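Researcher: Please translate sequence to structure tokens.
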Amino acid sequence: ALPVNNVLIGDLLSEYHKMTDNFADYPWLYGTVDNFGGRRSLRGSLNYLVTEPIPYLQNEDLTVVGFAMFPEGLDTDEMMFDAVADYAVCSIPQDHDAWLKKRLRIRYGADSEKAFEGWKLISQYIYTATEHRDSGLLSRPSLSVANVICQKFAPTYDLKILEKAVHLLFADYDALCHSEAYRMDLMDAARQVVANAAWTPIKGIQDSFFLKDERAFEDNVSLLMHYYDLQQAVTAADKHTMLGPWLEMARAEGDTPAEKMKDCRFTLEKGIADESEGKRPLVVKESFQVIECT
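Model: Translation complete:
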């Protein structure tokens, strides 16, 4: 058996397990993956994470020793990062509505009942513990395409709910637009509305093709092209989703290996890989081994 003192297990999807696995009594971390592959899609278990994790640490029958996040992207779902950061330093479960109002006040620098109502809808119906469909605008052209990645996910919420939430967020724009966080949240929710809507003309293109309805086919193609233009207009409203700033950040890192590594904070050393067939890249001395298994 593995020595207990040398093992720390990170549970990537604790919100699914709900105290059903104690990992053979090894020390483990209550964790969540708030997005997969850095995909920009509103998803996660926000409502659950605000109220449920604390009892795990308080349960003496469990060997959980702390909380962790395992994001596959750092530039999405800021509210999910906020939720995990908050419960990591709390000793009692949070009241969801009270937490949400306080968090929005911190994020936006002002109170807004409309923004709270919008986020309450998003938290209750959109940020659930199930996977959501990716943007139809990212799908590969096909007469049978129904998803972007290999898994076939169907929408798990009424799309009209997110549209209503966007209207509520926008209602207090004049009072909140000074906040960069507010503008980003509004953009991201609107972007998701467009991403969801794109699946309708995609299905229409497929159906009209097989029905040999040329007029309907052309109408659906025009609508899909409109959604591409609309998505570009929406994402161009925020610097976090504009291409230019990302290119500038990449250029600022330098061109040569020496330029790119000048601010490296880690100690690099030779690894144990065989160099008989050529020189190998250096490895990070401060790193430790992580094994992912399912």
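Researcher: Any highlights?
Model: Residues 214-235 form the longest helix (22 residues).
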